[in-house]
């Protein structure tokens, strides 16, 4: 794993977290209906979580724990990606393909975060 990998992961998390605040409506739409409360609250909570994870992964002292938490986060948001794929099944082919294409991307994200945790020290 590249020495830059933790910072790239932190950058991805920070960009995604900031996007939740800059354009919340697109995230509100993929919040599973089964979650209590308003979709906007979940959008903001998940955005704040991504920003916190980004900070944790960027700092060597907290990197291992934050990267493991990021792996769990990527698993935890998978239902939102499933909802998006289902909701977008009647959209034009490029949008539908993008929504379905997001589903398998969770696997490399989880593996990337685990790899960052592993190289930060200890077992991941």
Which helices and strands occur, and which strands form pairs?
Elements: H1 5-22, H2 24-28, H3 39-58, H4 63-76, H5 78-87, H6 93-119
Helix pairs in contact: 1-3, 3-4, 4-6, 5-6
Keywords:
124 residues; globular
How would you sum up this structure, described in words?
It is a single chain. By secondary structure, the protein is mainly alpha-helical. The protein has helices at residues 5-22, 24-28, 39-58, 63-76, 78-87, 93-119. It is built from 6 helices and no strands. Helix 1 runs antiparallel to helix 3 (39-58) and helix 3 packs antiparallel against helix 4 (63-76). The two termini are 14 Å apart. The chain has one domain (5-119). This is DoxX family protein. It comes from Streptomyces actuosus.
* Order of SSEs: HHHHHH
Query: In whole angstroms, how far apart are the ends?
Result: 14 Å
What is the helix fraction of residues, given as a range? Answer: over 70%
Overall mean confidence score, pLDDT: 93
Helix count from the secondary structure assignment: 6
Number of strands: 0
Q: What is the CA-atom radius of gyration, in angstroms?
A: 15 Å
Q: Please give the domain count.
A: 1
Class computed from helices, strands and strand pairing: mainly alpha
Shape summary: globular
Short description:
By secondary structure, the chain is mainly alpha-helical. Helices cover 76% and strands 0% of the residues.
């Amino acid at each position: 794993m590249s020495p830059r990998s933790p910072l790239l992961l932190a950058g991805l998390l920070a960009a995604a977290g900031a996007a939740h605040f800059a354009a919340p409506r697109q995230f509100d739409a993929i919040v599973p209906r089964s979650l209590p409360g308003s979709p906007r609250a979940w959008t903001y909570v998940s955005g704040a979580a991504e920003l916190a994870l980004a900070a944790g992964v960027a700092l060597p002292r907290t990197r291992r724990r934050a990267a493991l938490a990021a792996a769990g986060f990527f698993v935890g948001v998978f239902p939102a990606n499933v909802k998006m794929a289902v909701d977008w099944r009647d959209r034009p082919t490029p949008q539908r393909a993008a929504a379905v294409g997001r589903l398998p991307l969770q696997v490399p994200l989880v593996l990337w975060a685990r790899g960052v945790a592993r190289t930060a020290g200890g077992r991941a």
